[in-house]
Amino acid sequence: MKLKFTKMHGAGNDFVVIDAINQKIDFTPAQWKHLGDRRFGVGADQMLVVEKSTRPDCDFRYRIFNSDGGEVEQCGNGSRAFVKFVVEKGLTDRKSISVETMAGVIAPRLEDDGSITVDMGAPILEPEQVPFDTENLTGVKEGRDTLWPLTLELAGDKETVLVSVVSMGNPHAVQIVSDVDTAPVELTGPLIENHPRFPRRVNAGFMQLVNRQHIRLRVFERGVGETLACGTGTCAAVVAGIRRGLLDSPVKVDARGGQLSITWEGEGKPVWLTGPAVTVYEGEIEI
Ligand SMILES: N[C@H](CCC[C@H](N)C(=O)O)C(=O)O
């Protein structure tokens, strides 16, 4: 079939966005992987699929596929591209929409200045629900958070890193580093992503504290590798920092691809993600 798509990004986290309301989409994981391939396909971190929702309280359904072809629960930067896409394509006459995802309902809103704010829902903080296996593991309490020791096998040596575990519908393991530019993201990112204590694998966040309302962040994403920004990873890092007593809401987050802003008022409350979304080009591909 000839597939129409729109190439977009949110702070450098890039997407192939597909209207599945006006196109019949039924791809295999191999076809999603092909679309995400930067040499043989279009190339993107994730593929985002726009569908009509069957829920009466939702305007759209939002499906997300990582570039490894796997479908995942949530994508924060993608939710901003999603609302820009449906407004620009005339699929809605509203600028604030409710979107059904595998992880629940989110509410992105297109602001008059072109920025987008998303109610990402409340973080899930019970390790077992992240999911993270705590059997025979002793955590270290810090503030309202618990830091969990992860043992990593590095070229025959063992290294232990302390991580906070947070779910934004998708799983995150966040650690503090002194300098994100020298953090061993490429080396330890895959080891954390595939650590056996994360039965659904995990996104690995590396957070540097600038001050109580400003961090720098790099994320080695599950199913992708390092991306220039990770929206849910940004939410998870700020939630972890606030629970550790190290950050105060709102927090400015410098990702490699741009700046995001997070507001969170505490347990049980939603995390608000604000940032950009850019349409790069329209395309077609035979698939
Ligand atoms: N790689 C993530 C999905 C995309 C998340 C990220 N691109 C975002 O903006 O939240 C996962 O496997 O959970």
UniProtKB/TrEMBL annotation:
Its EC number is 5.1.1.7. One of its GO terms (molecular function) is diaminopimelate epimerase activity. HAMAP family: DAP_epimerase (MF_00197). SUPFAM superfamilies: Diaminopimelate epimerase-like (SSF54506). It is found in: Cytoplasm. Belongs to the diaminopimelate epimerase family. Homodimer. The keyword Protein transport does not apply. The lineage of its organism: Bacteria, Pseudomonadati, Pseudomonadota, Betaproteobacteria, Burkholderiales. It comes from Pseudoduganella ginsengisoli. Keywords: Amino-acid biosynthesis, Cytoplasm, Isomerase, Lysine biosynthesis. This is Diaminopimelate epimerase. The gene is dapF. The keyword Isomerase applies. The record marks 172, 221 as: Could be important to modulate the pK values of the two catalytic cysteine residues. Catalyzes the stereoinversion of LL-2,6-diaminopimelate (L,L-DAP) to meso-diaminopimelate (meso-DAP), a precursor of L-lysine and an essential component of the bacterial peptidoglycan. One of its GO terms (cellular component) is cytosol. PANTHER family: DIAMINOPIMELATE EPIMERASE, DIAMINOPIMELATE EPIMERASE, CHLOROPLASTIC. Pathway: Amino-acid biosynthesis; L-lysine biosynthesis via DAP pathway; DL-2,6-diaminopimelate from LL-2,6-diaminopimelate: step 1/1. The active site is at 75, 75 (proton donor), 230 (proton acceptor). It comes from the Bacteria. InterPro entries: DAP_epimerase_AS, DAP_epimerase_DapF. One of its GO terms (biological process) is lysine biosynthetic process via diaminopimelate. It catalyses: (2S,6S)-2,6-diaminopimelate = meso-2,6-diaminopimelate. Its main location: cytoplasm. Substrate binds at residues 13, 46, 66, 76-77, 170, 203, 221-222, 231-232.
